[in-house]
Amino acid sequence: MFSRDNWNEIIEALSSNWFRTTLTAFGVLWGIFILVILLAAGKGLENGVKQGFGGMATNSMFMWTQPVSKPYKGLPKGRRYSFKVDDVAAIKDAVPDLRFVSPRNQLGGFGGTNNVIRGLNTGAYNVYGDYPEIIQQEPMDITSGRFVNYADINNNRKVAVIGEAVKTEMYEPGEEVIGSYLKISGVNFMVIGTYKKKGNNNGNREEAQKQIFVPFTAFSQAFNRGKDVGWMAITAKDGSSITELKDQIFDIVKSRHSIHPEDDRAVGNFDLYQEFSKINGLFVALKGVAYFVGILVLLSGIIGISNIMLIVVKERTNEIGIRRALGATPWSIRGQILTESIFLTIISGMAGIVFATGVIALINFIMKDMDTSEMMFANPSVDLGVVMTALGILVVSGLLAGLIPAQNAIKVKPVDALRTE
Q1: What confidence tens digit (pLDDT) does each residue in 293-306 have?
Q2: d(CA 415, CA 418)
Q3: The pTM is what?
Q4: In 10 A of CB 366, how many CB atoms?
Q5: Is the distance from CB of 69 to CB of 263 less than 8 angstroms?
């Protein structure tokens, strides 16, 4: 614990040439400012990219059928097959670490012919036959009414949940939607809800609102799909990786449809978890780059402080000699110099943190009322861990900056110091 006299001496030493001290401190201030801003910018980019997933269950994959590429059990190469409803139960039973296995069928498309009619209005929309779990795999906000439930599934109810964009195009402003009917490929479905998709849907945010969801069973019955399944959305339980489980799933499908075990082309898939992991790896790398660049800039400021402390030690040679002659130990001299170095480093570094925090707060204030869903940048911020890490870097930097000057100070012999003019 230092006395008031020691602290007064530290402040007097640093303020004796305030202009020099300020310029030196600015190097550390700027270094820590750059470090915090780079980390906040990286976090903002990460938030923006993850926002694009719209809360989607990232531990998921989508699986569909493709022509087989190898003959097997007398069956020819190039044949086509379809998933069946029974495949869903088989996959669930064989792979208990799966949370959801959602069979899906699809009709139409944005670029196809008009498949939805209401009065004089027509449109081309993607129509999905789904189970209720899909709302947990592709989250959406239900803006009115409700989503498909198991009563709809079990009773083959011809009901539909439509996107806000479908509502805008097919209905007049203020017109009641819930309880009305849409004709989908010639079959009437009653609208029971409207939704708005979260995120930017990989840049297709507007198109994501132009979808229609109906019960899987009603879809199969209305459009003569029988037991066929077009594709599946599969999500693993927390603590499990769909990337590690998908080979088991593929083996089950191959076995049930007489596909060669080594035919890797017969089952198409998109592993969302794998892609999400790559993105997370990118952000870890960006954080490493931010620390690397920030510390390099900070290092230049630390070198400046070290140089100034060397000059201070030189200027105080007489003082050090007198203190040594009066019995001051080498550790007390070293401690004094190191304390001055750490004090200057921490004060200038904290000023840099405060400055960076102010800039980040200003950016967030400007972006508060902006629609950031398509900007891939949102809520730049740093957490307490980053601040604590920055403080740790400052303390270590202060020690390093004062180490050489402190060692030079204790090498001063009292007699030689007293002779110095």
Answers
A1: 877 877 777 777 77
A2: 5
A3: 0.70
A4: 9
A5: yes
